[in-house]
Design goal:
Elements: E1 9-18, E2 21-31, E3 36-40, H1 47-55, E4 62-67, E5 70-71, H2 77-82, E6 85-88, H3 100-104, H4 119-133, H5 149-162, E7 167-171, H6 179-194, E8 198-202, H7 206-212, E9 215-220, E10 223-229, H8 235-244, H9 257-270
Parallel strand pairs: 3-8, 3-9, 6-7, 7-8
Antiparallel strand pairs: 1-2, 1-4, 4-5, 9-10
Helix pairs in contact: 4-5, 5-6
Length: 272
């Protein structure tokens, strides 16, 4: 890992309570460019709540958020988007009766100088965005209800990156998809990584996590059990972290990338 890189996201000592329940308790996590960070844990572990704080859906009680090393004030989803943060929920939030271009520009439509919808410009932009993401996509005129699950994911992802997302939150992106469509989504994620986009991946599928993620953050009872690199652990060890709340011996654990960056910098300095 390049020691000069500054994490896209640093969330430090984040806490949020609902009544007397600590949904997130002093949780820390971070993300670097071109990385997939998976968040795993049982239902109620706090992973979705932690990420909703980043997306502006919830307001933290305490803790700090930095984007590219600068303190970030995120009070709502609109402010999150100003920092290049986009969320793709499991439902995808697509308008089923509209085609791909209309969905990409939903709420942000392009208009002609006469104030009418500029359908030609929106379709051209949609074709350009989809061309770099999924060059085999051809069904631009069809309503998205007629598309496959993998194609619908393509539309949702293209909508995010069209507006310069640098930090992408993906909530169960392969849920209810078949093997072929799951593989298609995996290819999309790999392309996003090459483009330098950082991805938070929330998933219950441990196989998907190991196929797609670079690091895994395990949460339990609102706390971060540990953050480990996929290359350093087995699936059984991660399952043990989820169930027992303990890191396996020898695993590289900690809040996240910032600590690894500092470690890399020390090793680089010490090298002859």
């Amino acid at each position: 890992m390049n020691a000069a890189r500054i994490p896209l996201v640093e969330m430090r000592d984040i806490s949020l309570s609902f009544g007397g329940v600590h949904a997130v308790d002093r949780a820390s996590i971070d993300l670097v460019e071109g990385e997939v960070m998976a968040l795993v844990g049982h239902n109620g572990a706090g992973k979705s709540t932690l990420i909703k704080i980043l997306s502006g859906a919830y307001q933290r009680d305490s803790g700090s958020i930095a984007i590219r090393g600068e303190t970030a004030a995120i009070a709502n989803p609109r402010e999150a988007r100003q920092y290049g943060i986009e969320t793709i929920y499991q439902s995808l939030a697509l308008a089923d009766n509209l085609d791909a271009a209309a969905n990409l520009f939903l709420g942000r439509e392009l208009r002609t100088r006469w104030g009418t919808l500029d359908d030609a410009a929106m379709e051209a932009a949609a074709r350009n965005a989809m061309g770099g993401l999924n060059p085999h996509f051809r069904r631009f005129k069809d309503p998205v209800r007629a598309l496959s699950g993998g194609q619908r994911q393509s539309v949702a992802i293209a909508r995010a990156i069209l507006f310069n997302a640098q930090i992408l939150i993906m909530d169960e992106p392969t849920a209810a998809l078949g093997p072929q469509e799951t593989a298609q989504v995996g290819e999309l994620i790999k392309k996003l990584k090459v483009g330098g986009i950082g991805i938070f991946l929330i998933s219950h599928d441990i196989h998907d996590v190991f196929d797609l993620a670079d690091r895994i953050c395990v949460m339990k009872n609102g706390r971060v059990v540990g953050t480990v690199r996929v290359a350093d652990v087995t699936k059984d060890e991660v399952l043990g972290m989820i169930i027992l709340g303990k890191c396996p011996p020898g695993a590289i654990a900690g809040p996240g990338a910032m600590e690894q960056l500092r470690s890399d910098r020390r090793e680089s300095t010490a090298a002859p």
